Amino acid sequence: MPSTSVPPNDQATKNRVSQPTGQLIVFTGPSGVGKGTLLRHLLGQHPDIQLSISATTRQPREGEENGKHYYFVSRPEFEAMVAQGDLLEWAEFAGNLYGTPRKPLEHMIDRGHTVILEIELDGARQVRESLPAARQIFVLPPSVEELEARIRERGQDSDDAIAKRMARAQIEIQAASEFDIQILNDDLELAVKQLELAVFTQPSTAAHQPSPPETPPQI
Ligand SMILES: Nc1nc2c(ncn2[C@@H]2O[C@H](COP(=O)(O)OP(=O)(O)O)[C@@H](O)[C@H]2O)c(=O)[nH]1
Ligand SMILES: Nc1ncnc2c1ncn2[C@@H]1O[C@H](COP(=O)(O)OP(=O)(O)O)[C@@H](O)[C@H]1O
Fold first, then answer.
1. Distance between CA 54 and CA 205 in Å, rounded?
2. Which is nearest to 138 in space by CA: 216, 19, 30?
3. What is the three-class DSSP state of 119?
4. Hey, what's the torsion of the CAs at 187, 190, 191, 195, to 10 degrees?
5. What are the pLDDT tens digits along the chain (219 aa)?
6. CA atoms of 42 and 9, how far apart (whole Å)
């Protein structure tokens, strides 16, 4: 796959001499499927991979830190970011706004990093339009019942927030086939291995491999 660079949006970027560019990976799946868990394992093994930090109007959960898990902002602050073109993509999810700050992402990609955007379906679709070379991965749950059990077990969302997430989950799961790669998160260890493979395998290389002959060549 060709590397993905974020379109330049200022003069300094346009004037820069050519540098290695990294790849962008979009990572999507219904709330509670285990995206955060899978990424923690992946980043534990590959600390060079960067995770984009989103802006959100959601209230911080217990243990979440501003600037580490999210940039927690007010709705007017978020709307100002949108108006100034500061976000690569953004969407409303379960009553809150979420978006990807453009500048830090450009910086990481330009420095040659692999960067992962953990974002919901609408945002993934926006990135597919603006940066079609970004690899898109979708995580599936073993079942909708198991998904709800995981959200409840996590114990961090109100009943209302869980109901909104479950309603959205049905729509998101139906869109899984739009993504380049689907990973079933049933056995966690297996799913982490599949994620590693999805991130580190270059699909264009595989696509250009000659197919093996059906019968061994005659000598
Ligand atoms: N479009 C978009 N979605 C995001 C962004 N950041 C997080 N999300 C998604 O917003 C949804 C809700 O995230 P969160 O409130 O942390 O809940 P959780 O997924 O249940 O842990 C998830 O599907 C995230 O992937 C972003 O920058 N843009
Ligand atoms: N393969 C798995 N099997 C069982 N439970 C899992 C698995 N993956 C994640 N979980 C659990 O599911 C819950 C939701 O995971 P989380 O990573 O927060 O999901 P997401 O980031 O997609 O919202 C957590 O309690 C987590 O420990």
1. 31
2. 30
3. coil
4. 170
5. 444 444 444 444 444 445 567 899 999 999 999 999 999 999 999 999 999 999 999 999 999 999 999 999 999 999 999 999 999 999 999 999 999 999 999 999 999 999 999 999 999 999 999 999 999 999 999 999 999 999 999 888 899 999 999 999 999 999 999 999 999 999 999 999 999 999 998 765 444 444 444 444 343
6. 31
Which of the listed residues 154, 156, 190 should we mutate to test ligand 2's pocket, taking the one with most ligand atoms within 8 A of CB? Answer: 154
Selection from 143, 164, 163, 180 nearest residue 28 by Cα: 180
Ligand 2 contact via 31 beta carbon (within 6 Å): yes
Residue 202's φ and ψ, nearest 5 degrees, are -90, 105
Residues 6 or more apart whose Cβ sits within 8 Å of residue 122: 89, 91, 92, 93
- Beta-sheet strands, E only, within the chain: 24-28, 50-51, 55-56, 71-72, 87-93, 96-101, 115-118, 135-140, 181-184
The three-class DSSP label of residue 55 is strand
**Is 54 flagged in the annotation as binding?**
no
22 is in an annotated binding site: no
